[in-house]
Amino acid sequence: MTRVAVAGLGAIGRSLVSRLAAGLPGVQLAAVAARDLEQARATVRELGGDVPVVAVEELEPLADLVVECAPAALLPRIAEPFLRAGKEVVVLSAGALLDHPHLVELAAEHGGHISVPTGALLGLDAVGAAAEGEIRSLRLTTRKPPAGLVGAPGLERVGVDLTALTEPVRVFAGTAREAARGFPANLNVAVALSLAGPGPDRTQVEVWADPGITRNTHTIVLESDVADLTMTIENVPSENPRTGRITALSVISLLRKRTAPLRVGT
After folding, report:
1. What pTM, to 2 d.p., does this model score?
2. pLDDT top residue among 160 and 47
3. DSSP reduced 3-state for 232
4. Which of 17, 91, 169, 172 has its CA 20 to 30 A from that of 206?
5. What is the full DSSP assignment across 186-208?
6. Separation between Cα atoms, residue 114 and residue 86, nearest integer Å
7. CA separation for the pair 243, 234 (Å, rounded)
8. 79-91 pLDDT, tens per residue?
9. Is 63 left (phi over 0), alpha (psi -120 to 50) or beta?
10. What pLDDT does residue 243 have?
11. Residues 248/16, Cβ–Cβ less than 8 Å
């Protein structure tokens, strides 16, 4: 039985706690961390959980694995104790890994593991397979309703008023590394894609604010020596418009595979 801790009780964290509390073969909810402990305890009870709710620094002794679904700045505080103990960290704030490469080194040194789930994207199996050969180009085009981009630091540089849009506007074009800096809460998918593929400096990204859509849409175009791929996913947003409902379910799928007698996909 794998004891799982959930760090963060936003839209994704609440969904995970609810699913894990309902039961998952080989996995049990062991602890939850959140900023407001009293409010979090009430939320966990409402979601059907009966586990300790503690500060992030207190999680590691309580679990074998932690799922990070907190603000990106908290990733080192969440991950480091687990990695030093040779345990696993499931990272949703993939962009933060670029700012904290020491976490990968820490995992290697102590026998820990960092997993980045597919999340709101698709096709990472195929991109990873193509990366074993030669990827000539990899591009991600993301279109989001304006509400899904509110607050992104990258918007300040282009001076776009999201409330006044009447047609799609491209608000960013650059590498996945640059996208992670400009849109740290919006484009973890770009970093996940780049890590599966040729890296954050060779993965090109465009971001569009589109008032004519209601779903977060990601299109991947890959050219390689083994396959050319074009893939699009349209995600239904959660109550947090920056994230899709499928993200939490991607983590559940990852956890389910840990003990499943049949595993499909890597």
Report:
1. 0.94
2. 47
3. strand
4. 91
5. T-HHHHHHHHHTT-TTSEEEEEE
6. 10
7. 12
8. 999 999 999 999 9
9. beta
10. 84
11. yes
Concatenate the DSSP letters of all residues of 114-182 into one string: EE---TT---HHHHHHHHTS-EEEEEEEEEE-GGGGTT-THHHHHT--GGG-SS-EEEEEEEHHHHHHH
Cβ–Cβ under 8 Å, residues 206 and 141: yes
pLDDT at 239 over 90: no
3-class DSSP assignment, residue 84? helix
In the chain, the domains with their CATH numbers are 2-119+246-257 (3.40.50.720), 124-235 (3.30.360.10)
Three-class DSSP category at 257: helix
Query: If 0-12 CB within 10 Å is exposed, 13-18 middle and 19+ buried, where does residue 141 land?
Result: middle
User: What CA–CA distance (Å, rounded) separates 219 from 233?
Assistant: 7
Q: How far is CA 169 from CA 134, 155, 212, 215, in A?
A: 33, 11, 11, 16
Query: Are the C-beta atoms of 86 and 63 separated by less than 8 Å?
Result: no
Catalytic residues: 218
Match 């020596």 to its residue by tokens. 225
Structure token pair of residue 31: 């602890």
- How much helix, strand and coil, in percent to the nearest 5, is found in the chain? 40, 25, 35
- Residue tagged 């586990």 (tokens): 51
Indicate the DSSP class of residue 236: P
Nearby residues of 64 by Cβ (< 8 Å), 6 or more positions away? 2, 3, 4, 30, 87, 88
DSSP 8-state symbol, 244? B
User: What would the pLDDT profile of 123-178 be if each residue is shown by its tens digit?
Assistant: 999 999 999 999 999 999 999 999 989 889 998 888 888 888 999 999 999 999 99
106 within 8 A of 81, measured Cβ to Cβ? no
Specify the 3-state DSSP secondary structure of 233.
strand
- Percent of all residues in the chain with a pLDDT value above 70, rounded to a whole number: 100
